[in-house]
Amino acid sequence: MDxxxxxxxxxxxxxxANQQVKHAKQETLAxxxxxxxxxxxxxxxxxxSVYAVSLLEDCELFNAGLxxxxxxxxxxxxxxxxxxxxxxxxSGVINIEDVKNAIQVSEKLMSEEDxxxxxxxxxxxxxxxxxxxxxxxxxxxxxxxxxxxxxxxGLGTVGCVALDKVGNIAAATSTGGKxxxxxxxxxxxxxxxxxxxxxxxxxxxxxxxxxxVSAGLSVKIVTRVTDGMSLEEASKKSFEELKSYDxxxxxxxISSTGEMYHCDSHPYMVWASYDKELSVFA
Length: 282
Known about the structure:
Order of helices and strands: EHHEEHEHHEEEEHHHEEEE
CATH architecture: 4-Layer Sandwich
Largest sheet: 8 strands, mixed
CATH topology: Glutamine Phosphoribosylpyrophosphate, subunit 1, domain 1
Radius of gyration: 17 Å
Low-confidence stretches: 150-154
Number of strands: 12
Structural class: alpha+beta
Strand content: 25-35%
Strand order of the largest sheet: 4-3-2-6-5-1-11-12
CATH superfamily: (Glycosyl)asparaginase
Distance between the termini: 29 Å
CATH class: Alpha Beta
Helix content: 25-40%
């Protein structure tokens, strides 16, 4: 089995749209997907998904981890999830504050009986397991918050889907939210609507969380692949169903046959893949 990897960095419109930012995102995605593909050679799909998303969280160009959007009360809250296609276990954190890598807390929860935690419970668990205080706010996000920018930002998430050399699939997704949301709002990123994998396929989503949850997008696409559709067919059919309410979404995915696919309902999602050679789009 050839190992394959695809990542996304949300939509380009999530922040100040200019060519300098666009090129920076392209270069960063290219660097991260190459590092992660090299990592995948000696690690599982699950481990690699966490590794790739952690690198994306550590880059302030993307709305996850460092550089996340600020909510309406002036605080940053992160959500992330991880799913192992082999075991079909799902773990995640919702609205966790003051940590660097929400996806790594999600990974730690994978071994627990209670695998999805939110708010203060998620933070307490993180502290008990060695995750130290970290403030992910950047000056740009503070300026955006103070200027009360809205519609042109906040459509960002990061994610990874990996297929390892023994055929296992994993998906990981992380977000800093949409910006200025009501505290307590739950995005799609820590649900099976936005992040799902089984033995047949894995999907990571980005876009408007409410639209993605309404569609049950990730689990719907994977279910259709499981029932015999190709990844492209399943994705196209599911995106056709978004049109009834002008759903705003983008996905990356890999199937157990090695098929990789990406699509979005509104341009332009930024993504990169590595399958024998590098592909980057923004």
